[in-house]
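hi support,

uploading two proteins for the ticket. first:
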Amino acid sequence: MENHKAGFVNIIGNPNVGKSTLMNAFVGEKLSIITSKAQTTRHRILGIVNGDDFQVILSDTPGIIKPAYEMQNAMMDFVKSAFEDADVLLYMVEIGEKGLKDEAFFKKIQNSTIPVLLLLNKIDTSEQAFLEEQIQHWQEVLPRAEIHPISALENFNVKEVFNRILELLPEAPPYYPKDQLTDKPERFFVNETIREKILLHYKKEIPYAVEVETEEFLEDTDIIRIRSVIMVERDTQKGIIIGHKGSALKRVGVESRKDLEAFFDKQVHIELYVKVNKNWRSNSRQLKRFGYNN
């Protein structure tokens, strides 16, 4: 295709800086789950934005952390891969933040040979004087980066950043079919929707000990029938997920069904089960099964 632009735009940053909110704003669909809890994004999720003469492949990666167990090591591998194929790197920070939780990643950004856009997010929560201080700080720390103050939640400056991305992309044919929205299958979004409800409604360790696996996804003309299993690490967690007379699990099912009906634009019937899968977060075989290890 003549004068067609295409490329990979990878979003990185610490947990809770608003990467998923920005990704969804760019794509116009809820592909990445959004909650106030850290480590919401566990995988690298691609969102594809198509125009007549461009294809932007956005990548939302897990927030950068110091890994404490095997699953978190796998999550950081997804972040490392985001450096390898990016045509443009979006480094997202929150007002008041000073740097990445991993120094090696930060050095990679400082030495990057590809364009880096530093997105200073949540500026709607800041005074102008502090914003100016922050811009000066980041200009000193990352002199090669372009700094763009934004509010992903309020959609402030998001379109301007997207237009700048288009200017920076190389000329190339599309990498994916033009009607494709993401690289993930339907079952992935079912799993993520259920996991989002668990992140929202359960406290302490529970959301982090959970993985969701969709065993059945049957689509007819007027309804999708789904059977999903919520994996936990201990029997006590199973009881908490289910709740008194199944009330907590029912709430997760009802809220997930509503979101999935909006996402797939079709009636959804969902069955949820809870199983104990001991120490799955530290088991490389189990992590591979859930898509964390190649």
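and the second one:
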Amino acid sequence: MVEHKIHKGVVMRSTGSWYEVRIETGEVVSCKFKGKFKKAGIKSTNPIAVGDKVSFIWAKDGQTSVINAIEKRKNYIIRKSINLSKQTHIIAANIDYAFLVITISQPRTSLGFIDRFLLSAEAYHIPVVLVFNKTDINTFKEQDKQEEWIEKYTNIGYQCLETSAKSGLGTKELFGLMKNHICMFGGHSGVGKSALINTIQPGFKLKTAEISGFNLKGRHTTTFAEMHLLDNGGYIIDTPGIKEFGLVDFKKEDIAGYFPEIREYMHGCKFSNCIHQNEPQCAIKEAVKNGEIAESRYNNYLAILNDENVNKNPF
């Protein structure tokens, strides 16, 4: 009699037909799945994604191991399917942290870029840590600006780190946050994502272009996602497809709710359908006037609200 055992693990890699699942012992098992898994509200071309926690029937007799269940996801990132416009493709699931790497110069990261990234992460329920990198090359003026930005985002509730791959500043704290967590990195090309990764774990072999995904822009690609294990038990999600971190079925009336400080004040508006632009007795505009909401954040909210492409593929 052939014995088949049920095991649990996390999906490390997906090729569309095969899934590599890592179990607690560290062993990786190649699996397929049979049938369809239906997730409420998700019309996806791929039922299983990197980061999914699954159970599978492990066949050690040379037969194929088969995934038979997926645990409920705490979050996920999707993009529009390349060939099927009405469906989506799940890029990754169960993400613990998104690290947005920011540089004041070389290259310059704009507040508009930061706020769109944060809005997207809020929509997908993904915690973000803002990593201010290349601190060692800041001029006095640039350092003042960085400290101003850190104060702005700390007041909203976002965790901020100052780092330098060259001097090692903040890299231990960054590595500590990644311990036993599934993580992904974002930011413009050239902000030093790969250098940071190589500093916290020397010899880590990821291509710079792969790490530099998750920029909120870029054309759709057909690459497959993969997770890499760190020495501290953490994981890094690696896929250029993360560049398609746009929102699907995004509604303009939802935008305000993805800004934590606007969400805090919005119930004080006179009109329940207030979009905080031209309406009278708007609590948000009053909070901006009183300095309780940063003017830059409000202006970026308006820019996103009035983007004519916001309902199509906003980022």
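thanks. also noticed: The helical segments are 111-123, 140-156, 171-178, 193-200, 208-211, 260-265, 283-289, 295-305.
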